[in-house]
Amino acid sequence: MKTLNKILLLLLMLLSVFLALPINTDAAEKKVGKASISVKTKGDTINITIKKTDKAEGYEIYVKAPGDTKYQKYDTISQDGSKERTYTYTAKNEGDYQFKVRGYKKENGKTKYGNYSKAVKVSIEKEKSDSSRTVYITKTGKCYHYKNNCGNGTYTPIDLEVAIKKYSPCKKCVK
Ligand SMILES: [Zn+2]
Question: What does the alpha-carbon distance between residue 112 and residue 131 come to, in Å, rounded to a whole number?
Fold first, then answer.
């Protein structure tokens, strides 16, 4: 049994060496090049500009959205020969988004990847339109309130766009 253990150990060692070999990012980087990106936001639209990477046939776009624990491949786009390519991403939620991309090329039926670009982080704040916010009213009051504890009484939530038709803004808490 001891001999068997030794053989197994040897096999494991060989396997780990074998597994480590194909991961050679330096060589891949020389061929595809490291991608670089810049990111601009306008509202919930995020424009990712990818600078052309030598020999890349296209790019993989990775996103880490709010709540994600790791990056996820979001999309793949092809190189179109232009110096820069802009990719548009629409944020669904508020919070921090992180992006990174990497170039790829296909060679002898295998896909080779360049190194990841630096990760770029943007923060998205959804603007709440004023008319859709919730305000509070009381049964007897003539005002609507931003605070549900502005004075004494029982405050009931109501949409602002409904409230403004019947009530006037509270001078204390609505500014
Ligand atoms: Zn008030």
Answer: 52
